[in-house]
Amino acid sequence: MKRFGLILVVLLWSAAAALAAGKSKTVVVIDGAKYYVHTVGKGETLYGLARTYGVGERVILSLNPAAAGGLKAGAKLKIPFTAEAAGAPSERKLRKTFDTHTVAEGETLYAISRRYAIPLGTLIEDNPSLDPIRLRPGERILVRRKERGTEPAGAVQAQWESYRENLNSVADEGYAYHMVAAGETFYALARRFGTTEARLSELNGGLQPAGLKAGAIIKVPSNGATRASAGGTAPGKPEDRRAGWPETRPARDAGGAAGTEPEADAAAQAEAARGKRTEDATAPAEAIRGADGAARTRQDEAAAWSVPAGTAETEFGGFAPDALFGRLPRTDSVGTGDTTRLEVDFRPLGRGETLRVALMLPLAVHGVANANYLEFYQGFLLGLDSVKRAGYSVHVDLFNTERNAETVRRIVEEDEAFRNADLVVGPVYEQPLEPVVRFAELRGIPVVSPLANITGIDSDVLFQMAPSPERKYDKAADLTDGSKQITLIYSDRTDREFEAEIRSLIGDREYRKHHYVYEHASVVERRGKGNSPSDLTPLLQNTADNVFVVMADNELDVDRILAALASAYTSIVSRGSTPPRFVVLGNARWNRYNNLSREIFFKDHVVFLSSYHAKRDSETVLRFDSDYIRAFGSLPTLYSYRGYDTALIFAPAMFGDIRYDLDGTDYTPLQTTYTFGRSEGRGNHVNRNWTRVNYNEDYTIAIE
User: Fold this and answer.
1) 425 φ, ψ to 5°?
2) Is residue 669 part of a domain?
3) Closest to 438 measured CA to CA, from 464, 408, 461
4) How far apart are the first and last CA of the chain?
5) How far from chain centre, in Å, is Cα 36?
6) What are 631-645's pLDDT values in tens digits?
7) Residue 57: enclosing H or E segment and its boundaries?
8) In Å, how far are 78, 463, 476 from 486, measured between CA atoms?
9) Number of H helices, E strands in the chain
């Protein structure tokens, strides 16, 4: 009897072992089909797996030919996914539980997961029809509200790498999955994996070279060697091309430790930049350096500048004119004759390392001070304070470039502190930028141009914060897509540059032209309003959606035309009629005008495209303004805001996002969003994001 019982136990144990312990939690999508990735356990059988997953044994064998010779513990199997029936949640529950994200062109699930700081697995689980490596532009993704902000960037990165490894573990024979590293191109990948660009595109759903993003997972041809190559590089750990340079840097004085009271620390460093000392703050490590490496006094730092110091304060409601940053001249670069562009893989610093920043600003020219760049530096210091409070160690060396190409060249060639930098910010002009970029290419470090639009230098190490002029009107496409009636209003003087932009934007679509002639009120009254060329009421006597574009080139004419439009609108309403909808597509240069009534922007529904926006009544900007005033005793300017943005984007990125060239991520330090990307055939990483500012009739400002 005992023997019979023992046999029964053994049989029961064997039957249990034949069945899989349960369905795998790991699911991947391959060519649009979902599969479990099952790791074979000891004693598992094909019969047991078929029972567990509810599929036929032949199905499993057809997907896993190697299993025909028997299952081996530890082997990976691809098994068709079978969804369990579940009731669809109500629309109300969906709205309560989830936010919705619309996929942009070229966006990856990794970037979305990073953006919302949400686990990758949560996004995949909540969006069962999603193919994680092939998102479609316009596809809507549910983002679970309670999970937002819960996942650090490092964890998301590890999850994305794990997903790639799972794909490779069950990839079809002859194929593998590769994670695109920063700097890799379509052409280079095709050569690396022994195929053509056309075949690479075909394997990845028609992916085009311009759509290739760092961090994306793509399907590639594979043999034994290339499969190991495709699967063996962790995300963000591309081959280090900086031969001869150390993997780690010796730590230096961070110029203010994490946890230092921010305003005091920043103020102390700004005072050091002025050549002063403060008694209530630790002396900073940062110093202004000239070409000879010596510290400068305030008299030495002074610089001449053509932009009045108060220009930045001519904004209304926080609207910042892109014209201010656009005043930097576009000079020819100092060419080297070498047109070969190097592809650079940036190596992020470890969390325990000290980031060394070389900040190059034209603080002094012939002994005359330039307040604008001191303000940029002050904003930069406040940004670094925030970075240090987050636990990063940062040291910055400030170099006075003197707005002189020879000075910059000597700094690059001779200054040891500069040559040991991990990140270069500046110089702000294009003319002296060339030697800085070429040095950075050799070191494999990024260079940030904080203000200028770069036209003559092409490099993988160069990041441009000024938005690309080519994308200026992307957010105004709805105004010129042919659905609205466009009227160009001229006066005696025309802004030819603005006119060229608008005519190019309109293309071959229809538009009307109107010539405005000013008449004094007494003349209008004598002739009758309806007979005066100053009366713009006829432009509003239609039922169309109207877009008016004012081409005038002087403040007085712009003011008169905007006032005439507002008057015509008021006149129609007062007569009990319904005026048509209209907007005025504004010229950013209007923000230079000191006497132009900003109230009229609201009445005329003005729309601006701006390279920078900081609305001073927003909570984030108010907080920054308060910190800045406490630290430096004055209101910040646009230069202060841009300096802060520069530090807050690039200093943390040097410990992580730089591995992906900051590609596919939106950065909004204050209120302006920066989105970096490369144009077809260009190496520079240029901010693509312009801000659309809408002045509404109810005296609110809407930002897009």
Assistant:
1) -115, 120
2) yes
3) 461
4) 82
5) 35
6) 888 889 889 999 999
7) helix 57-63
8) 58, 36, 13
9) 23, 27
Whether 633 and 263 have beta carbons less than 8 Å apart is answered as no
CATH number, domain of 276, equals 3.40.50
Q: What is the mean pLDDT of residues 25-31?
A: 87
The number of angstroms, rounded, from the C-alpha of 265 to the middle of its chain's C-alpha atoms is 29
Angle, CA 160 vertex, CA 158 and CA 166 arms, to 5°: 100
- Residue at 699 is within a domain: no
Considering the domain architecture, whether residues 276 and 328 belong to the same structural domain is answered as yes
Two structure tokens written together for 60: 């499993």
Distance CA 609, CA 586 (A): 8
Amino acid at 403: R
With a cut of 60, say whether residue 96 has pLDDT above it: yes
Phi/psi at 231 (5° precision): -100, -5
Counting the structural domains of the chain, the total is 4
Residue 588 — pLDDT band, cuts 50, 70, 90?
confident
Q: Are residues 437 and 495 in the same domain?
A: no
Same structural domain, 146 and 235: yes
* Burial label, 614 (beta-carbon count in 10 A; 0-12, 13-18, 19+): buried
For residue 278, count other CB atoms closer than 10 A to its CB: 15
Nearest C-alpha neighbor of 305 from the set 360, 366, 359 = 366
- Cβ of 501: how many Cβ atoms within 10 Å? 17
Residue 465 covered by a domain = no
HSE-CB for 662 with a 13 A CA cutoff: 32
Could you tell me the pLDDT band of residue 313, with boundaries at 50, 70 and 90?
Answer: very low
Instruction: Say if 466 falls within a structural domain.
Output: no
CATH code (residue 27): 3.10.350.10
- Residues 178-193 have pLDDT tens digits of 988 766 778 888 888 8
Q: Identify the bridge partners of residue 152 per DSSP, sorted by sequence position.
A: none
User: Are 159 and 113 a contacting pair, CB within 8 Å?
Assistant: yes
Give every CB contact of residue 614 below 8 A, 6+ residues apart in sequence. Answer: 318, 320, 621, 638, 641, 670, 671, 672
Distance CA 203, CA 214 (A): 18
Distances in Å between the alpha carbon of 388 and those of 195, 257, 258, 375, 659?
46, 7, 5, 20, 21
